Amino acid sequence: MRRRGYARPVNREVRWTMPRDDCTVAIIDADDAARRATQCLLQSVGVRAHVFGEAAPVLNWPARQRIRCIIADVFLPEVSGLELLDRLAREPCRPPVILLAAAAEVSTAVEAMRRGALDFLEKPYRPETLLACVHQAFRADEAARRDQELHRLLAVRAARLTPREREVLFLAGAGLTSQAIATRLGVGRKAIESHRGKAMQKMEVKSQALLARMLAVLTDDVAGPLFEHEEKRGCLPVSSLAAAPPRPWPGDAVSPSVSGPPALD
User: Structural domain of residue 211, as residue ranges?
Assistant: First the structure.
């Protein structure tokens, strides 16, 4: 009979970087002994961990914003591990999820990864393996939160722009000169340079390179509306630049959730 997945004592040679005080791991397992063993393993390296017998309390937990990683068994009552992934996928910034299973088909593991699981481990797991996954989860969560804050900051700046400044800024970021933008929009070059200067000032950038990197973060929000506008004017075929899904500009009434833009180091 297959032994249930309880954690063995951690190898003291494992290198572990102490997490921040606000890093919390949620452990979800219907087996009380299994989840307590995983909790003890994490606490042995200084990680704060909370245990739950099912997924629903985690989704409704008031302090859920402090969760930096979720370790869940695939076969949970009511809300399974796969269903948990689906529910978390609707959120703009979800914690990484590590799924565990004592006995699971390869197709289940493949489906878990397809739905966004960080990793899929078989019980009984090696303590070093789980700790490495949790460490990776902390790094991934920190990067995602940093990128989300970056996008929020740029969206606030972008909301200051006028419609014309948006057009000029995007076309400038695409590499067009002021004269080319003026020809495309049917206005004078000096007017374009004025719009361009005001837009860069509002976005708080001083170089074309940094502007391009900012637009790479906001590209889905910027490109769609501008392509539609330019195509209606007959000035810009959609195929002439890299198309992006039509989405509202950041700061508009309807703002889609955006995940994982690159950080501007």
Answer: 159-240
